From TrEMBL, chains A, B:
GO MF annotations, alphabetized: metal ion binding; S-adenosylhomocysteine deaminase activity
Pfam families: Amidohydro_1
Keywords attached to this entry: Hydrolase, Metal-binding, Zinc
Residues covered by the Amidohydrolase-related domain: 50-395
HAMAP family: MTA_SAH_deamin (MF_01281)
Name of the molecule in the record: 5-methylthioadenosine/S-adenosylhomocysteine deaminase
Name of the top EC class for this enzyme: hydrolase
Source organism: bioreactor metagenome
C-alpha cells in the first residue's frame, strides 16, 4: 500500500534501542511503524532526528503573547490591576487574532501541537487554530462579577455551537468559568446548567493561590474543589488549572470524579503561588498534564521547560530524586495532556494514534551520548530543535519552515498590536 | 581609528531603548560603544541581534558530558557508587579531553564563554580550553581519603604552575579540594598551605546536602563553612559551590570573608538536595554566581535555564514575586560569575571590559514584543539562539558556525569514548 506520508529512518523516543524506523501515515492516523521499506505520496527524511509525540499545552492564554515582558517581578494584584487588566480591556478582536497567531508560531516551533486556551473573543482564536492547522480546546473566559456576565456565557455557548468538533475534530470547546473568586456560585450554576445541556466540559482555574482557597472557605465553607463538586461541575468533566493548594480530601474528590489537572510549574513559581502536590495526585491516579499559562507569567510557551521543571521541582519537594522520572514527565507533556483535553487516540507514537508528530534534530551537543532517549529529551534537549511538525497527519513545519503561516507577517502584526495597546 | 572588530547595528541587553549601536573592539577589549559610524578590520552585522555578555558557568565538571543520560532518577549514593564513580574510574586522558570538547561546543553554542571546572586530568581540560579559545578557571578535584591524595595535590600544584594566567590570562587555576566529606581537616591543611604558597584560590563543594552538614557537625563540631573558616581557607579567596544548607552564621562568615557562591539550582533540585537561601545571601552582599554542575545532574550546560530557574524558584521560596528580578538574574549569570571566578573587567558590555560577547538572534517568536530586554532574555529567550560568540576579542562562533572546533569530530569522538566507558 502507499501511505500519504512516510517518515523514513527516524529514531523514536519510546524505543529503547539505537535503531531507526519508518513511520507510515494514512489520513490523520499513524498506520505503520516498523523497519520494512514502505512508500508514501510524500516522504520525509527522518535521519538524525527523533520522533516525539506533539506536546500538549494544557493551560494557556495564547493572546497574552502581546503582553510578554510588559510587566514582570511585581506583586500579583499590583501586576493584574495596574498592568495586565487595563491593557486587556483595550484588546480588539484583531489583537486577539495576532496575539494567538504569535503563540501558534511559538508553540509549533517548540514541538507543541495542541493547546487548551481560555480568553476573550475566542472566535478569533478558533480562526487562528483553523488556519494554522493546530489542535486546540477552546473556552471563553467567563466572569460572573461583571454586568455582561450573561452575554459572556452566551458567547461561550455560541462558541461551542460554532466550533466544537470542527476541522475533523481538531477543535473542541469547553466552558471557561474563570475562577472561584470571579465566578460566584449562582453564576456557576448557570454555567453548569448550560454546559450540561450542550454536553460541554469545563476548563477552570482552581485552587491557584492560598488566598483563593482561604476566601472560598470563608465565603462558602468549602474549598474550591469541594464547592465545585457540590455544584455538580465535575459530573460534566473538568480540566482544572493549577490545583496548587489542594487538600487530601480535595484530591480524593478529584480522583473519584476524574478531574484532570493542568499543572503550570513555571507560572506557579514566577507568581510565587506555591508548588502543587503532583506526586500525590499521580499516586491517586489523577491525570496530570502540563501547561505554560499565559506568557505574562512564564514568559514563553516552551512545554519542554515545563516538563523538565516538573520533574526537577517535585524530586526536591519530595526529597526523593526518583520521583517523576523522565518517562513520567514525558507522559505528562504528551498523552496526559491529550487525556486532560479530551482528545482520543492522541499523545503517543503508536499505530492507530493521531499523527501529531514532532521530529527533533538530534545533531546537537546535548543529544550526545545516547544512553536513554527519554532522559535526553526531558533533561537535556532543547525544544527549539523541533524541525518538522505534523498535526492530524498534515505537515505544518518542515525543516524549520512554516507551510501554513507567514511568520514575518505574524511578528510584524503582533508587534504593531502590542505597541498600540501599551502606548 | 580602525578597530580590530566592529559589531554593527546591534541591540544591547542593558540598554532600555529600542536603538541599535556599534561596538568597536581593540585587542581583547571593548573600546567603543555608540552610534557613530566606525570601521574595523573585521565587521560583524549585528542587525536583528542582541549583544549579551558571555555567560559564566561558575561550577561544572565538563567531561561528565560523557555520562549524560547514563543514570538518572536514582538515589544519590546508589547513583554515585553504582553508576558514576565506577565509570569515572575508567576514564583516560583522552576521555577527559573529548568529554570537555563536547562541553565546550555545548557551552559556546548556548552563549557561555567562561566556566569553572573541577575534575581529574585537568591538563587535558586546559588543552581543550586553549584550543577552543574559551575562558576558564580550572581546578584539580582533590580527595583526601585515597592513597594517592598527595599525588593529586601535586598535580594541582603543577597545573597552577603550568597554566595559571596562560593564554593572555584566559586560563586561571584554583585548588580543588572536593568536599568536606572527602577531604579531612588534615588534608585540607596541606591543600591550604600549598595554595597559600602559590597565591592560588580555592574551588570547593560546600554544604551541598543536609547530610554533609550533619556529618561535619558531628565530626568537627562546626558547619562546613565554619570549619573552612577555622582552617584559614577563606583568607585565600574561595569559590564555594552549592551552599544549599548554610546558617545565618555561615552567611555572616561568607560575607565577611568574601566567599563567592556558585548556585546550581537545577542540580540541587534534580538530586533533591534543597534550595539555597540565595535572596538572603544577596542581601548580605555575598557574590552569587550560577553554575550548571556536571551533566549527570542537570543534564545540560544551558546557563540561561539556570538563570531563569534561579529567578523563578526564589520568588516562590520567598513567597514574593519581586525577588530576584530579571536584571539580578542576568547579573548572576554574567558579571557575578566573572567576579566569582576572579576575572577582572569581565561580564558587562561596557567600554574597557573584556570582549566576551554573545549575539543572540532576536528574530524568534519569544523575542516579540519588546518591552523589556532583560525580562525577554531571562524569562522567554532560548540560549540556542546564540549565533555569534566572541571570547577575549576573538570570534569563536560566527552565524552558528564554529571557527575553532570541528564539531562533527567532537560528537563522534566523544560518543566513541562514552560507549567504550559504559559497555
Amino acid at each position: 500500500m502507499i501511505y500519504n506520508i512516510v517518515i523514513k529512518d527516524v529514531e523514536i523516543i519510546t524505543e529503547k534501542n539505537n535503531e531507526v524506523y519508518n513511520i507510515g501515515i494514512t489520513g490523520n492516523k499513524i498506520a505503520y511503524i516498523g523497519q520494512e521499506e514502505i512508500t508514501g505520496t510524500k516522504t520525509i527524511n527522518g535521519a538524525k532526528h527523533i520522533a516525539v509525540p506533539g506536546m500538549v499545552n494544557a493551560h494557556t492564554h495564547a493572546a497574552m503573547t502581546l503582553l510578554r515582558s510588559y510587566a514582570d517581578d511585581m506583586m500579583l494584584m499590583d501586576w493584574l490591576e495596574n498592568k495586565i487588566w487595563p491593557v486587556e480591556a483595550l484588546m480588539t478582536k484583531d489583537d486577539i487574532y495576532w496575539g494567538t497567531m504569535l503563540a501558534t508560531v511559538e508553540m509549533l516551533k517548540s514541538g507543541t501541537t495542541t493547546f487548551a486556551d481560555m480568553y476573550a473573543d475566542m472566535d478569533k482564536v478558533a480562526e487562528a487554530v483553523e488556519e494554522t492547522g493546530m489542535r486546540a480546546s477552546l473556552s471563553r473566559g467567563l466572569i460572573g462579577l461583571v454586568p455582561d456576565s450573561a452575554k459572556k456565557l452566551q458567547e461561550n455557548i455560541q462558541l461551542f455551537k460554532d466550533w466544537h468538533g470542527k476541522d475533523n475534530g481538531r477543535i473542541q470547546v469547553m466552558m471557561g468559568p474563570h475562577a472561584p473568586y470571579t465566578c460566584p456560585p449562582d453564576y456557576l450554576k448557570k454555567v453548569i446548567t448550560a454546559a450540561g445541556e450542550l454536553g460541554c466540559e469545563i476548563h477552570m482555574h482552581l485552587s491557584e493561590t492560598q488566598e483563593e482557597v482561604n476566601t472560598c472557605l470563608k465565603e462558602n465553607g468549602l474549598t474550591p474543589i469541594a464547592l465545585m463538586d457540590k455544584l455538580g461541575m465535575f459530573e460534566l468533566g473538568t480540566l482544572a488549572a493549577h490545583c496548587v493548594h489542594v487538600t487530601d480530601n480535595d484530591m480524593k474528590i478529584m480522583a473519584a470524579k476524574h478531574v484532570r489537572v493542568a499543572h503550570n510549574p513555571q507560572s506557579n513559581l514566577k507568581l510565587a503561588s506555591g508548588i502543587a502536590p503532583i506526586p500525590a495526585m499521580l499516586q491517586k491516579g489523577i491525570t496530570v498534564a502540563l501547561g505554560t499559562d499565559g506568557t505574562s507569567s512564564n514568559n514563553n510557551l516552551d512545554m519542554l521547560e515545563e516538563a523538565r521543571l516538573a520533574a526537577f521541582i517535585h524530586k526536591n519537594q519530595s526529597k526523593d530524586p526518583t520521583v517523576i522520572p523522565a518517562n513520567t514527565a514525558l507522559q505528562m507533556a504528551t498523552v496526559n495532556g491529550a487525556k486532560a483535553l479530551g482528545f482520543e487516540n492522541l499523545g503517543e507514537i503508536k499505530i492507530g494514534q493521531k499523527a501529531d508528530i514532532v521530529l527533533y534534530d538530534m545533531n546537537k551537543p546535548y543529544w550526545y551520548p545516547r544512553y536513554d532517549r527519554a532522559s535526553l529529551f526531558i533533561y537535556a534537549a532543547n525544544a527549539s530543535d523541533a524541525a518538522t511538525v505534523l498535526v492530524d497527519g498534515r505537515v505544518l513545519l518542515e525543516k524549520g519552515e512554516f507551510l501554513t503561516i507567514d511568520i514575518e507577517k505574524v511578528y510584524a502584526e503582533a508587534n504593531k498590536c502590542a505597541l498600540r495597546l501599551t502606548k
